[in-house]
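Async update (no meeting this week)

Hi team, since we skipped the sync, here's where things stand on the single-chain job. The sequence we agreed to prioritize is pasted below, unchanged from the tracker. I ran it this morning and attached the output directly underneath so nobody has to dig for it. Comments welcome in thread, and please keep replies under the output.
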Amino acid sequence: MGIFPETYIHLKEAIVKDRGQHETVIPSELPLGQELTSTLREWAVIWHKLYVDNKTTQFRHVQQMTYSLIEWRSQILSGTLPKDELAELKKKVTAKIDYGNRILGLDLVVRDDNGNILDPDETSTISLFKSHETASKRIEERIQEEKSLQQNLDLRGQPIFNTTHTYSLYVNFKNFVCNIGEDAELLMSLYDPDLSKFISENYLVRWGSNGMPKEIEKLNNLQAVFTDLSSSDLIRPKISLVCQIVRVGHMELKDGKKHTCGLRRPFGVAVMDITDIIHGKVDDEEKQHFIPFHATFLFLGLWVSLKLLPGDLAQVQKDFSHLVDRSTAVARKMGFPEIILPGDVRNDIYVTLIQGEFDKGKKKTPKNVEVTMSVHDEDGNLQEKAIHPGAGYEGVSEYKSVVYYQVKQPCWYETVKVSIAIEEVSRCHLRFTFRHRSSQESRDKSERAFGMGFVKLMNADGTTLQDGKHNLIVYKGDNKKMEDAKCYLTLPCTKTEIEEKEAPSGKNLHHLANFTPTKDSTKDSFQIATLICSTKLTQNVDLLGLLNWRSNSQNIAHNLRKLMEVEGGEIVKFLQDTLDALFNIMMEMSENETYDFLVFDALVFIISLIGDIKFQHFNPVLETYIYKHFSATLAYVKLTKVLNCYVGNADDSSHCHPCISFWQSERVTSSLHHWRVYSFSISSILELFRGGIFVACMTAILRQMDDSHYNHYINTFKTRQDIIDFLMETFIMFKDLIGKNVYAADWMVMNMMQSRVFLRAVNQFTSVLNRFFLDETNFELQLWNNYFHLAVAFLTHESLQLETFSQAKRNKIIKKYGDMRKEIGFKIRDMWYNLGRHKIKFIPAMVGPILEVTLVPEPELRKATIPIFFDMMQCEFNFSGNRNFHMLITKLDQEVEGGRGDEQYKILLEKLLLEHCRKHKYLSSSGEMFALLVSSLLENLLDYRTIMHDESKENRMSCTVNVLNFYKEKKREDIYIRYLYKLRDLHTDCENFTEAAYTLLLHADLLFCLCSSSPTCLPSSSMEMWEKAIQLSKELADMYENKIFDYEGLGNLLKKRATFYENIMKAMRPQPEYFAVGYYGQGFPSFLRNKIFIYRGKEYERREDFNLKLLTQFPSAEKMTSTAPPGEEIKSSPKQYVQCFIVKPVMNLPPNYKDKPVPEQILNYYRANEVQQFTHSRPVRKGEKDPENEFSNMWIERTTYTTAYSFPGILKWFEVKQVTTVSPLENAIETMELTNEKISNIVQQHVWDRSLPVHPLSMLLNGIVDPAVMGGYTNYEKAFFTEKYLQERPEDQDKIELLKHLIALQMPLLAEGIRIHGEKLTEQLKPLHDRLTACFRELKKKVEKQYGVITLVSLPGSLVRLSVTSVASSVVSSSSTSSDSTSSRPGSDGLVISLYV
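Output:
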């Protein structure tokens, strides 16, 4: 019975192949539907991972693509789409899949023209290769477009913007709200406020005084598009729409009828920031924007609506015909668009009236200057309607500037466009006349032009007027002469030109025709700026010189070299003319080979230039030229000759570079086919430079060969040496091609095709090896060696490592090609065993390669190849008796650190080696040792590799120490040193400078002598380890003084040592705390599990802070609140438990300090350093409480930990390796020893230094002789000095006698202390001293009666200091256990049970 209603179940038609356990179900739906399904499943896995990794941007991107594919899949599976719509949707789907696969790092899918996936078995190799190239190029272009848009535009919601590089801004002028009372001109343009410049032409609207457009037919139809905007324009930080309002009427608004009319006067300006619209953040063509005036009027301005459109003018007219039609005004960008299209003929000259300065002459006030601009030819004829003030209107013959009232230095910044026929440019010039305008009409009519200026549009050398500012000369004189072009055209037009003409002679030019041409004779000035946007005119003299090379043949070489410096836009404008000139030079100047090389370089430059995305549309122009216009026959020979010369000098990078650049272009390849360069040498070179197609051609040939072809080919070789040479070259070439990764990683089909063909070829050649080169007389060591290295390189190639791929890709490869690693791996095994007696020749060289094979994570392959190691051991034993496998250890270290190998490999390697070794008569013992050695190494290396990715540097340090200790034990100093420096780096990163120095000292211990010139590598003052620094500096001083005789270095070293001594006595050094940490539970890694470590804390580190750091390192661990030893339940638990408590270091004073009055500053160092033993005590009550003696069942558990190494060392922690167990009686003995030694020390100090204060002595004596304490003797008597205790523990008789002896020994020490106390007596201390004397008298009487009398032997002036011999070593029962044993916990081993006294 089903659990889903029948209406929810849909049965899909499918075909079932290979019915049974491994059947394959193939849906009957369209192949595209199947591809969509598998793609969505594959993307879903990646999508989930992006979510987990919190990669929000990529996650949303994949989400958007996935939703699109799901929607399209539904449409396809519905079966309702018409054929044409289905075909169009299929293109969108395949494009989206291919794009998504690339950005997600998945494999490239190759398709035919209809979007169907190509079957590699049904497709030729060359076609497959070309399909990969085409698909890869198409996707790469799409990705670049996406990147550009994401970075520059942020237009993610507008898919139409994905495939364009040119944009247009649509402006709909709705209304102008301002009652000026006179006519007005509104000039709208785009402006970059950061660069302070206009970037477009003006859009002109003429507005009538009646508040309506001057042309009534334009009412509600005032629209314009600003075209040719590129991506670089759209990423400008800011961009504004500026509207300049010019009033056309009287000089003043209040003027009447008798005043001058028709004057252009400035009125106001309106500015709107349109950055968000340009960036695509605002996109609403219906929204009307109000742009207020920046003037004295409020609530005045204009209303517009705006929209950014993708595409050039033709494209927007097609795609947005409802907005842009033939009547829409077109305002072009003042400059070329990002993409220059062939056939885009443009010849626009933009002229900006910038500023002027005019002398007021006889007038009392500055002039009201009006500039009139016109275009004339060399005969003075006026060019009609050549000047365009703004888009939307026809041109005018004369342009009159704005008039500023009584301004001496007017600044206009008015830009107009000059459009004249290209052939007329060379004959034309711009004329500017200057006239004072009076507000009174009668006076104005009498005003004549007071000056003129001009500028020629073409220079004498044939280049167009340069872009930029030009300071024109203002000529004054006869008005008729001003209008006569023949009079003024012979004069210089700019101040720069006149300076150049005056410079050689040093004299002023003579006056001509009543003009004043010199800069000294007039104070007037006038400045303009020009910008040429022409597809037919050039401002580059070098390019012009090349085009006109026949008239200037002596500069051909110079112009050819300079061509590579010409801006690309200039060259593409004259592409065909430039190519004609280059080939004509090559043909007509054939006697000079220098030109051939320069022309070749120029061709490389031009062809590379066409590859730029900006000029990509000129590709058809180049192709058309090659097909239809190129006919220079001799050029084939010359180009081939130059190419051969470049290739022949390939070792010279300067020669090689142009050749490589030439061949890297696919366009060059197609071009050369049309230039008929078919010689064998050239085509071979071509194939070599384009390695992909070369390999594809070779693969295609090998793919068509069967067994008979291979046999026939081998039989064609006449001699054995020919076969050797062929196989040697083939093996080397195959290995080289495999190592170089000829194809991209995502060309999965091409890579697998190549691998399958290569594998078949290699397997064919193995039979040749076995047939011709295996016997004793014909064996070829190098040939076999090359084979093995080729086979290993093939097997370990990244494209065949299936476990690194997704499950979907893995299944796809297994189904189509199988696991080729197994096939080649089994062949390697067979070829190895075929070697027979020759095997020894490959040992140890083949140990590393075979290890690489066995590390491949394929179980069957590992089982087949791991036994080769035993075979090598057996072979080496049989031939030499050695079992030296150092190379295996070195290689294993490298491979595991590189990420190869796993726990399964370790288990299988150990298992197989042990099985084979134990069966061997002579290798059973040594082989087993070797197997366990390798297994142990693998365990350490795997732990190290795993923990290296851990955030905890402490764990990484521990694993590093484990590995370096392994290598030290095995005497592999090379690897040992490498790990030492890894450990040093870890310490340095954590600022553990002391431990880093100790790590370096381990390397120093390996050297025969220290080669350092200063002790800076040793623990220094910054680490406050001055005692260690002194010790090492003594060793260094000996070398300076007695070996290298560097007395200057010795002097500096001794000065440093002096500062170390001074620091010891004067500087304050905080003492670190030590912590015992136990890691319990199976949840910890093996190097921590159920072990105890002693940690050296940082300065001033509290236990709370240390605990927090531990729990941060192990967030899932549970903190144990008790210091009691954990039970087996906790140890075997899968969880993690951490136990932490403070331990006290046991001072290990150097022998030379004992029995001497050592200052406390020195002793303080040894209380926390050079220590290896640590104690921890806790009180425990055992049994019922005795009311008469509460101490009878109060015991102390004291654990003494001994670490593997002393602190400080190469780590801040060390594992506990040894513990000592102390009984309660022994603890009492130890306590008495310490007390006696303390009394002896303080008495001795007072004997030697009478100035010491008496208070410490008073406190010590009072604490011992006071009746409330009485030395604790009563407690000892009750606990140990009873018949019951001796009956239960008769073996402790000697220890009890020793304890009694120590009690008796304390009496003379106390007597001497009280004597000294009496000598230093003060009035305040007299009562205390009397009481001490009385108490001591009673105590002494009791002790001497029970335990005897001991007398001290004194010498003149001093007391013989008792060397209180520690008896712990003779009476303590010691046991040493490893901390990884079952009792390895605080308080289990090293347990001390003592009376609480």
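Quick observations from my side:
The longest strand covers residues 1194-1207.
The mean pLDDT is 80.
Reply here if anything looks off.
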